[in-house]
Write a structure and sequence with these properties.
By secondary structure, the chain is α/β, with parallel strands linked by helices. The protein is built from 22 helices and 18 strands. It has two domains: about 280 residues, NAD(P)-binding Rossmann-like Domain (Rossmann fold), CATH 3.40.50.720; about 160 residues, no CATH class. Helix content is about 45%, strand content about 10%. The protein starts with 6 loop residues before the first strand and ends in an 8-residue tail after the last helix.
């Protein structure tokens, strides 16, 4: 992809890798670079440094933007600790990650607002998403909830406000829902913005080391929190693997460094932890704490402030913090994490965007390492179908749907096509028959054939009659799915949605849709030349048996592929 005159969004542009990526882009003469970070200070500092490095660039070249990309815009500038202490904010977070991805959920998200504002051609995501999600520490949230549950059991009848708060905090830290929602919003936002290329700078979670990694934050070895980071990073990669197989998604790549990343600067000065200086304290030997029965993790008066802060020589590794010479030497020594420079990551990133092949794109590596559909399976496909058809004839049954594969929409479509096949035989007859007649004939069949009717409703697929209000159903139904309430208010809009998702729909408007589908297939087939024998199309006259029969499986495969845009992108 030619980067010249393109709009580039660098998420996490203040960080070590993000800054290097911005500098690397400048060699390709983009139109502008949107530089984002969590805080306003970081975003403005990053843009200031870039403007100083490129004084001849247009004043509009570098655009600062700041905020938390994982939450709705209303919360983007509020520290996470503050959002978790507010019942109002916790409710917003829970709604945003656990509700279905509706239009309002998407449109109020920070990522959506960011991408729709700038319409980037290229997005490079340098935020360490796995750390941001996994270091919320679901284990600590769980321990706190367990403690509150035990307290609530001991103090029956006492207010459970603390239990409710602990439960909500745990829901806010659930890794998988957060990650899935993040990828859903990223995909939809870029799709709507017209983004053509997405590159994620990922992580292995352990700096390339294994389960024997010796570095923890005083947890067990290996640390569960650290392994959670690796688990989230791996899940993120597979979700991006799927995004890369989605036809209307941007081209998707991931560079995953497996080493420590260094460095931003080497200096002497005030050492900071999470952006704050480390105050020095002192405890004279005469005031040593006597160890008896309990050890307090925090003792406000155990030490005296010295009135100054820790100052030393350090190496600044950006968002990973500042290390002493000893710390840096220990983790970078051969056989430990070692390290890779941000400039090397940036070079690989831009080269991949320009259609180069660095060998470092993990999505491409997965594409080439996974086991794809095989020639053998394709060769055996028709034989399997023939064997099943033979058994159907021997036993006098039609094998239509069992509602084990899912979604219920597939079972609904299969049975609707099956009913049309029984009543009308072929696609042309259905296409030229009026919708009201189709509807009436299918109702007559359902009424007369109690065995067929029973098979449909027994697998959880109800039958909506032409009046749109009468439902033939079994004890349980698959649609609508259970969402915590057994009774759901009925509206016309909901009936339409449920009928679409998993009800055999005998209304005239659905029969009209089936006529249109069959008409489309007929048009495509009849548009082929009689002499067409090339490999250009698989859906030719022979595939459709010259339109002389309705094959529900083929029909539904066609619907999912073309009507619902669910076509497999890669073999």
């Amino acid at each position: 992809m030619d980067i010249k005159d393109k709009t580039v969004l660098v998420i996490g542009g203040w960080g070590l890798v993000g800054s290097a990526v911005c500098r690397q882009f400048m060699e390709e003469r983009p139109r502008r670079i949107i530089v984002t970070s969590l805080t306003e200070r970081e975003a403005r500092d990053a843009v200031g440094a870039l403007r100083a490095s490129y004084p001849d660039a247009s004043p509009k070249m570098f655009v600062p933007w700041w905020g938390n990309i994982f939450v709705r815009e209303e919360l983007k500038d509020i520290p996470r600790e503050k959002t978790l202490t507010s019942a109002k904010y916790r409710s917003m977070i829970i709604d945003d990650i656990l509700d279905e991805l509706s239009g309002p959920v998407l449109q109020r998200s920070t990522l959506y607002r960011l991408t729709q504002r700038y319409k980037p051609d290229i997005v490079v995501d340098c935020v360490n998403s796995a750390t941001a999600i996994a270091y919320q520490d679901i284990f600590q949230s769980s321990r706190q909830l367990v403690k509150e549950i035990k307290d609530a059991k001991r103090k029956r009848g006492v207010s459970n406000e603390r239990l409710i708060e602990a439960t909500e905090k745990l829901l806010c830290t659930l890794y998988v829902p957060q990650l899935i929602r993040h990828v859903q919003i990223m995909y939809r936002s870029m799709q709507l913005a017209g983004t053509r290329m997405y590159v994620k700078i990922g992580t292995s979670g352990t700096g390339g080391m294994g389960l024997n990694i010796p570095y923890t934050h005083s947890e067990e070895r290996p640390s569960r929190v650290l392994l959670s980071k690796s688990a989230v990073a791996g899940a993120h990669t597979l979700l991006l693997f799927l995004m890369g197989r989605t036809p209307d998604a941007p081209i998707t790549k991931e560079i995953k460094p497996t080493a420590a990343i260094a460095w931003k600067a080497i200096a002497f000065g005030e050492v900071k932890r999470r952006g704050e200086p480390i105050p020095l304290e002192d405890c004279p030997l005469s005031e040593a704490v006597h160890l008896t029965r309990k050890l307090s993790l925090k003792m406000p008066k155990a030490a005296h402030p010295r009135g100054d802060t820790l100052r030393s020589v350090f190496i600044d590794t950006g968002e990973n913090g500042s290390f002493s010479r000893g710390e840096f030497e220990a983790i970078s020594t051969p056989g430990q994490m070692e390290f890779v420079t941000p400039e090397e990551i940036a070079e690989s990133t831009v080269f991949e965007i320009k259609a180069g092949n660095t060998g470092n794109d993990i999505i491409n590596a997965l594409d080439n390492a996974t086991l794809s559909p095989t020639y053998r399976a394709g060769f055996m496909f028709n034989g399997a179908l023939a064997a099943m058809k033979k058994l159907e004839q021997e036993h006098g049954v039609d094998s239509v749907a069992f509602e084990m594969l899912g979604p219920p929409r597939l079972s609904k479509l299969l049975y609707e096509a099956h009913l049309l096949k029984i009543c009308f035989g072929d696609l042309r007859t259905v296409a030229r028959t009026e919708s009201n007649i189709l509807s009436k004939r299918l109702v007559d069949l359902i009424q007369a054939d109690d065995q067929l009717r029973s098979q449909i409703i027994s697998i959880g697929i109800p039958i909506l009659l032409p009046d749109g209000r009468s439902l033939v159903r079994g004890t349980a139904i698959k649609i609508p799915p259970y969402r915590g309430a057994q009774d759901i208010p009925i509206t016309a809009k909901r009936i339409d949605q449920w009928a679409h998702d998993g009800w055999v729909d005998l209304r005239e408007k659905n029969m009209k849709l089936w006529r249109e589908r069959f008409g489309h297939i007929i048009h495509d087939v009849e548009g082929l030349s009689d002499n067409e024998t090339s490999s250009r199309t698989m859906h030719n006259r022979e595939y459709w048996k010259n339109l002389t029969e309705i094959d529900p499986g083929k029909i539904c495969g066609w619907i999912f592929t073309y009507e619902e845009k669910g076509r497999r992108m890669k073999a």
